[in-house]
Q: What sequence folds into this?
């Protein structure tokens, strides 16, 4: 019951965020006074862009941390939403460049999934006949996507992300309302 | 070990990047072999997902999966591929921990130690 309420709540929040993320924003907002936690953890860095290494600042680390905690709970509960919320937290709250957000999220999902998989495996909830087509498809797609990423336009990437955000939000609302959580 | 340039952030990233790729390709290869065997052995059986069956006991532990895979049980080989895929980021975190210890980076040694402990707990002990 609580999981259903959570799914509905987050579906609604995601829809709202999708609407908000359609507004354009500064890709490389450099801070003059750095975030205290970002400075302590030395999070500010550079990433390779079309016109060479681009520096970026990391904002609002504590809020980002809290959102990641929620993303972890949601992904274990619903099986969806983790990556979406990670990208949103890094993009909207921590203000990372979009490609840094998506690639970091991609790796983080591997780590988050590793934490949950052992539990599911011991509970006998991983069926190999279902795993293999999913895994082979996902891996092929991920390798292809990583090759395409370097030469993709960030605005286009953001549009695709927003579309997927809407689909994911509707899926979450549906799961919550129908009670299949 | 004594050459500090081998442990610079960039060098560590390069090594880890190659390792992650290797882990993923190895896992995909194992799953592909398992999947082929699975289809050859059970491909003609009609799919039945109407009733949920939990995985058999021997596919629930890493020891059981390894024994099954060595006995060429196709389901165990697929599970082994999954375990390899999941283990890849765990080994990555362990490698980062070593790199941070060499760099004497106290904050990141602490962070990666906590992450690694949580991952190992989830993988080896955690209960649903």
A:
């Amino acid at each position: 019951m609580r999981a259903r309420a959570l799914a509905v709540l987050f579906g609604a929040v995601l829809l709202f965020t999708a609407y908000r993320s359609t507004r354009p924003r500064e890709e490389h907002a450099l801070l003059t006074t750095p975030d205290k936690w970002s400075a302590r953890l030395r999070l500010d860095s550079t990433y390779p862009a079309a016109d060479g290494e681009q520096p970026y600042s990391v904002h609002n680390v504590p809020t980002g941390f809290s959102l990641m905690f929620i993303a972890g709970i949601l992904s274990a509960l619903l099986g969806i939403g983790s990556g979406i919320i990670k990208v949103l937290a890094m993009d909207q709250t921590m203000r990372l460049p979009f490609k840094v957000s998506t690639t970091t999220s991609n790796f983080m999902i591997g780590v988050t999934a590793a934490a949950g998989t052992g539990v599911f495996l011991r509970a006998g909830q991983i069926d190999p006949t279902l795993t293999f087509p999913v895994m082979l498809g996902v891996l092929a797609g991920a390798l292809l996507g990583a090759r395409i990423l370097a030469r993709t336009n960030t605005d286009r990437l953001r549009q695709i992300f927003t579309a997927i955000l809407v689909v994911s939000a509707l899926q979450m609302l549906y799961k919550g309302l129908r009670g299949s959580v | 070990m004594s050459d500090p340039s081998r442990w610079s952030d960039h060098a560590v990233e390069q090594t880890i990047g190659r390792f992650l790729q290797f882990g993923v390709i190895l896992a995909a290869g194992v799953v592909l072999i398992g999947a082929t065997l699975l289809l050859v052995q059970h491909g003609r059986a009609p799919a039945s997902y109407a009733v949920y069956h939990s995985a058999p006991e021997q596919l629930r532990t890493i020891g059981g999966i390894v024994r099954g895979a060595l006995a060429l049980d196709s389901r165990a080989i697929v599970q082994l591929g999954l375990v390899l895929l999941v283990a890849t980021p765990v080994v990555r975190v362990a490698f980062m921990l070593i790199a941070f210890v060499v760099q004497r980076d106290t904050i990141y040694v602490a962070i990666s130690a906590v992450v690694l402990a949580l991952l190992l707990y989830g993988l080896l002990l955690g209960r649903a």
